[in-house]
Give the backbone structure.
Amino acid sequence: MTGIISREALKKIRKDLKEKGKKVVFTNGCFDLIHAGHVDYLTKAKEFGDVLIVAVNSDESIRRIKGKTRPITPLSERGFVLSNLKAVDYVTPFEEDTPFEIIKDLVPDILVKGADWSIENIVGRDTVESNGGEVKTIEFVNNQSTSNIIKIILERFGK
């Protein structure tokens, strides 16, 4: 039940997609509790190209970034859900705290992040732009986040 492919397998797929002239879009994130905001974001990201690759933080990476109580959902389940969304073509994990290495390995045509990131601070921007690609941001349509969902659950069902 993973839906996740290895970075090595994805590097070969990326090479084939490039040879076929397909425009590859890349984004990344934790995608801990997948919600409507995630689906909207991924759907909009896919509209920038032909193929959408989602790099998802490993469980260990999320713990380092967000603390020992996260993730709520393990990588295998996050990968399964993401890989079954209509907009998503490939899901691959990364262990690092940032996606710099995987962006360097894949060199997508379009790098996408949420508009809460300023373009100059987006990890991998230099790699993508120096190879002729573009960096784009997407406005969030609602205030949904995994942190907000956790807060609501605690408020409604906590002690």
User: Anything to note?
Assistant: The helical segments are 7-19, 36-46, 59-66, 75-83, 100-106, 125-130, 146-157. DSSP finds seven helices and five strands in the chain. The mean pLDDT is 94. Residues 64 and 116 are 21 Å apart (CA to CA).
